[in-house]
Amino acid sequence: MIIDSHQHLILPTELQIEQMNKAGVDKAILFTTTPHPEKAKTLTEFKNEMSILFKILGGENSLENNKKRFKKDISDLMKVINNYPDKFYGFGTVPLGLSLEETQIWIKQYIIDNELKGVGEFTPRNDGQVSQLETIFKALKQYENFPIWVHTFNPVTLNGIKILENLTKKYSKTPVIFGHMGGYNWMEVTDFVKNTPNAYIDLSAAFSTLALKMIITEVPDKCLFSSDAPYGDSFLNKQAIKYLSPSKKISDKILGENIIKLLGLK
């Protein structure tokens, strides 16, 4: 089974499923989204959609506004998953800045009760927000092998990645997916994942096929195929993995077997 382990909610859902079918992807793990760049027909429309994302990354929203937005985004996600359970699994968002007790309540109510498979995507805009992830790690201690997905490309810095690495080692029972290969810091992330049992690498947003090839070669059991759709394309990413993998056995692991094992999927 081929599973795209990181897609965002695309509207209409029928379009997303059509794209998956064309790409030869059996299932996808959906993440919430607020902007919908797939709707854009022109550069101006795309800029308008992305401005929503940039405001979020810039920290312009208050905690209360973030909570309202996350609740709506999770509600939209669950409607799609419930309507198409044969096509989608899901990860759910958790606001940063809540107390430990509030975070535990949120995870129970919006993640566990909805039978989502993990938490994320977290996109820390500075090192301080990476440190805030410790509250999430603490809240996840009561759930065995429940993964957290963290964006590790820009604006996350090398120092931010090192903070995340320390948290990954400290909370060794929680699987941590380093999203987008660590960006320009992919060599640092690859070395860390290779030597850390609970660390994994998401292969979306690869800016270099050389980086992708090196990661596949070094940590084939820790790599997860994903597209980050609509920002990436499932078919192209799948073909890159097939082309760069040294064997079909390894590409099969990356394209589905690794994420099935990590999440305990049937």
UniProtKB/TrEMBL annotation:
GO terms for molecular function: carboxy-lyase activity; hydrolase activity. GO terms for biological process: secondary metabolic process. Keywords: Hydrolase, Lyase. Residues 72-265 form the Amidohydrolase-related domain. The keyword Hydrolase applies. Pfam families: Amidohydro_2. One of its GO terms (cellular component) is cytoplasm. It comes from the Bacteria. InterPro entries: ACMSD, Amidohydro-rel, Metal_Hydrolase. This is Amidohydrolase family protein.
